[in-house]
Amino acid sequence: MSEPLVVIGNGMAAARLVDEIAKRALGRYAVAVIGEEPRLAYNRVLLSSLLADEVAAADVELKPARWWRDRGVTLRYGAPAVAVDVVARTVTLADRTVLGFSKAVFATGSRPIRLGLPGRELPGVMTFRDIGDVDAIRARAAAGTRVVVIGGGLLGLEAAHGLAKAGARVTLVHLMDRLMERQLDDVAAGMLRRAVEARGVEVLLGAETARIAGSQRVEAVELRDGRSLPADLVVMAVGIRPNAELAAAAGVCVNRGIVVDDGLATSAEGLFAIGECAEHRGQCYGLVEPAYEQAAVLARRLAGGPARYPGTVLATNLKVSGVDVFSAGDFLGQPGAEQIVLHDPGLGVYRKFVIAQDRLIGAVLYGDTTDALWYLELIRSGEPIGRLRDDLAFGRALAMRAAA
Ligand SMILES: Cc1cc2nc3c(=O)[nH]c(=O)nc-3n(C[C@H](O)[C@H](O)[C@H](O)COP(=O)(O)OP(=O)(O)OC[C@H]3O[C@@H](n4cnc5c(N)ncnc54)[C@H](O)[C@@H]3O)c2cc1C
Fold it and tell me: Which protein residue has the closest C-alpha to ligand 1 atom 20?
């Protein structure tokens, strides 16, 4: 008889896990997937493109209903799991359905952080995480709407770009002295700022939000330095927090996220966690690739194999049309690391490579990201780059030809 396996969360990690299990251990498990959102799993990464009107709503769905049916998966969406009993081996949903399990997987993702500012509950203050948010933002953002986006990371930039494209007057407020400071150095961040401004987004750096003002609804964002920015809509994009409360309430060990070992197992027997809700070796990831790698490893283990998840070297691509940005690994360089920099301001191209002990450990590419995956592979593999080094900055074709 099939073993009951319950996956809590119906996002990108869950969909990939089911796909991998179906390939490796179809029939071994009776899989049920529980999703809080009232829809099939979708590609959250594409929400920025949906907001910018670059893809249609139908294009973001990951798998059609038939795909799930064909794999014998019981899908329950629209009601969150509200309790997990690790002794009785049950998951209870908000609609009081109780599902028994032999094994269970937390794949509950993250939620956006809302800054604890005065005025944060005013109508018109939004976050950007799910399809519901995109619908709500779009419903309020017409041509000429004044929008303040708080946060100059990947999400804030993509939201600002999408809204500016829709004709809104967008100001992006960022606390730090450069955009995407966790992925870009000063030079690349400066180029990005100019490109974003050229697309109609006003960028304020070193700007700390003090409060959101308004009587019935949001009217302005007030900065610590006294400036007041008129706003009909505020989008907070200041980071995410893992959804780990359900696991914590079940007695599972939780730190920032749900703590897992290299086998993606939590502290509770037969319970696992993958994706943004998981904390592995002290790290909670906020990108989809680690979630996919974790899903593949967990599926192999659930199929009886010995797979291990060693962690992921992160790489980031910004999805602002016409602005190509890539960053991976240690892009600033630890003490003692060397740097190769190629900068052509006229062409708007910047490439920086950080090298330590004859290995590429980080890279930033701005303006031309054609060979990003090759550089990422060099970083991940840790192979010596001595023979490529002279031409490394000029791209794969040249470097490989010279090394041959
Ligand atoms: C606008 C945007 C753009 C992004 N762009 C990129 C990008 O370019 N590159 C990149 O790598 N990543 C990007 N990301 C991040 C990426 O989407 C996430 O890393 C990925 O979705 C993580 O997958 P997950 O399954 O862990 O979480 P999610 O996809 O968030 O899925 C978790 C699901 O679990 C559900 N859930 C939570 N609690 C419960 C409960 N108690 N019961 C039932 N269901 C529950 C949630 O509602 C959600 O549907 C972007 C994210 C956003 C919002």
Answer: 288
User: Which residue from 108, 155, 163, 294 has its CB within 8 A of the most atoms of ligand 1, so it is best to mutate?
Assistant: 108
**What mean pLDDT comes out for the span 184-190?**
96
Alpha-carbon distance of 301 to 298, in angstroms, equals 5
Ligand 1 atom with the shortest distance to the CA of 82: 41
User: Does any ligand 1 atom lie closer than 6 A to the CB of residue 81?
Assistant: yes
pLDDT tens digits, 231-246: 999 999 999 999 999 9
Local confidence band at 384 (pLDDT 50, 70, 90 cut-offs): very high
Q: What is the pLDDT of residue 68?
A: 95
Nearest atom, ligand 1, residue 286 CA: 19
- The residue type found at 386 is G
- Work out the mean pLDDT of the chain and round it to a whole number: 95
Percent of the chain with pLDDT over 70: 100
The label of the residue with tokens 């740097």 reads 339
Whether 13 lines ligand 1, by a CB cut-off of 6 Å, is yes
The per-residue pLDDT for 402 is 77
If you write DSSP's letter for every residue of 63-97 in order, what string do you get?
S-HHHHHHTT-EEEESS-EEEEETTTTEEEETT--
Q: Residue 401 has what pLDDT?
A: 82
For ligand 1, whether the C-beta of 47 sits within 6 Å is yes
Question: For the range 251-260, what are the long-range contacts, defined as Cβ-Cβ under 8 Å and sequence gap of 24 or more?
Answer: 251/86, 252/84, 252/86, 252/106, 254/279, 255/279, 255/282, 256/284, 257/284, 258/106
Q: How far apart are CA 15 and CA 62, in angstroms?
A: 8
Ligand 1: which atom is nearest the Cα of residue 317?
Answer: 8
Ligand 1 contact, 44 CB (< 6 A): yes
Share of the chain above pLDDT 90, in %: 89
Q: Give, using CA atoms, the residue closest to atom 24 of ligand 1.
A: 109
Contact 158, 178 (CB under 8 A): no
Please give the structure tokens belonging to residue 13. 């990690």
